[in-house]
Amino acid sequence: MKIAAIDGRAVLVLGDRVADIATASDGRFGPDPMSVYADWGAFTAFAATLTTGTAPLDRATLTCPVPSPSQVFAIGLNYRGHAEESGMPIPEVPATFTKFPGSLAGPFDPIEIVNETVDWEVELVAVIGRTADRVPEADGWDHVAGLTVGQDISDRTLQFAAGGQFSLGKSRRGYGPLGPWVVTPDELPDRDNLTLGCSVDGDTMQQSRTDDLIFSVPRLVAELSAVCPLRPGDLIFTGTPAGVGIVRQPARFLQPGSTLVSWVEGIGEITNTCIGVS
Asked: Tens digits of per-residue pLDDT, 116-139?
């Protein structure tokens, strides 16, 4: 199942067509994309009855598929390759920070380049479907509604200011593009081992697989829910693989006019154009 948003309305993607969820459910779910996660079991049962879309899919109209989660968790140094390129030891616990929900954006929204140190970080993003509170790792996947492609765009200057403001440096407007849709794990070839990567102006910058994760998706659900409950619709940015711009020699960062393409196997890709700030 693929859940998307078109002009802010929740839709089900069925091949090359879409079904408006609020219309199809007579108002039981939608139009707010967040409403489908509030009663995930009932929604999935309803969605299974829809087999044909009512309108063609127009990718240009896709907006952020999870626009207003109550909590957005993000994990640093969660790929072995990225920890190694950063010269950091393998973490023993997830290095957790937050991206504020105001940073989330759509799959084709622009990225504002505010200075000369704006970096890319492609990520697999998990969407919580059922409240997770002290969940064991073995049950972690049962609480995940789906997965999507994300970018943890990072203003490195702000990130490392005043002792390290990770959350602010990663939460500028538009610095959390998601999409193109949320895909349920049963649709994926191997939910624990997916290829992901990104390119800038056609040059591949990151390319890895999620089996390089230090803390897997179910492990993250367990670790985070041991501290606080995860709510339906919450997001977990699971970390980025090796290949970020700041560690390159010389360092390379996003520039106005750059095109950033990010992908995850079995989900799709998002494309974000970088623009200057007037």
From this structure: 999 999 999 999 999 999 999 999
